[in-house]
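Protocol step 4 of 6: structure prediction from sequence.
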Amino acid sequence: MNRVSRGIDRIEVTFDDEHLVANAGLLLVSTLAVRLGIEEIVNATLRLVGRVGGALPGRKVLTLVHAIVAGGSHIDHADVLRSGATQSVLAHRVMAPSTLGTFLRAFTFGHVRQLEAVVGKVLERAWAAGARPGAARLVIDVDSTVCEVAGADKAGAAFGYTKVLGYHPLLATRSDTGEVLHARMRCGSANTARGTKRFVEELTARVRRAGASGEIVMRFDSGFWSNRTIETLGRLDVRYTMAVKAGNVAVARAVGAIDESAWVDIDYTPDGVAQVAECDYKGRRLIVRRTRLTDTAQARLWPDWRHHAFLTDLDGETVAIDAFQRHHAVVELAIRDLKEGAGLGHVPSGHFFANGAWLCCAVLAHNLIRWSATLGQPRSPLELIVARTVRTRLVAVPGRLVNRSGTPTLCGPRHWPWAQLFTRRLACLRALPMVPI
């Protein structure tokens, strides 16, 4: 141990190599950003004319997005893009953190909506490049989350139903890929269903513009239960499954009227048993799942059935639709990935609309990570894309940018385990056609 320790202690450290690239895999994401024309979309859509920090919004948004892709969660983490030759693998000038902070503080409510529109236009182009569901069923999970903050200087942060100080954004994710299709920042005191009707209308229009020509199904938990939302979904020709709140007297009465012979056993955990049945509730299909423990010791504490019910307009067998609704839980994986892998674990500004813009940048980064790993090649429906895994394998590649006979060459480390994957992905992304501006 002493011999090894002395060897380690002999290593000297200097930070003076201008040709090193800390996150060489940003070349993949930047290539895709160019193919999708993101900088041009931002410049054409986001109008911050006359506001301090509002010039050249495209390169500022992309600086934030690439910093988040590289693992940044704070505005000053953008400095990692200004080190060594990292800027050379990006297709835009990297802006300073102080400039980015001024830029975000220039946002108003309307400007955040413009940046939301950018997310929608980028989605259209990515789907046109091969990511769209086409005529296949598109399953969308709508949910909310809590972004915890510290301190009293965050405008709009409040204590909500979780008793946690923070914001309460609304999110819609694509079930099979984990892409975030729409997102909206809300103050921390907003109830779960606030703004859902407008959100669903915008979401439906966005995915149809992007090329979703088949059946659209949205899944909601009980916090979104609203007759108004159900009526909106019917008007938009969107199918749904929507959990109902526990303790509702009318629902309990309907469930209590179900005949015992109607309950069907389903697979459940080894220490529990579950059954499903259905009934009519005010002219709508109500599917109920009841569960209880079978372990002798635990069953003494909870001997009764616990009921979980949801409304739906889907056709099919009760057991299959119940399993479909339970799969709504995958939205939590996408939300966790957005927080842990795409910068939403920290909300950086004291300005509410600046944080709304940060959410849009996080959504762009989240989706670009997924598209960089999958676009242009067949994908297994069981393949789970996790931002940390993509970052480890493809983005956080150390490299050196050198000139070989007049050709800029990015040299990665020998024996990199995912070198072939990197070169395949780069070839796929470069083969995508440039989107006409």
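Step 5 (inspection) to follow. Residues 109-131 form the longest helix (23 residues).
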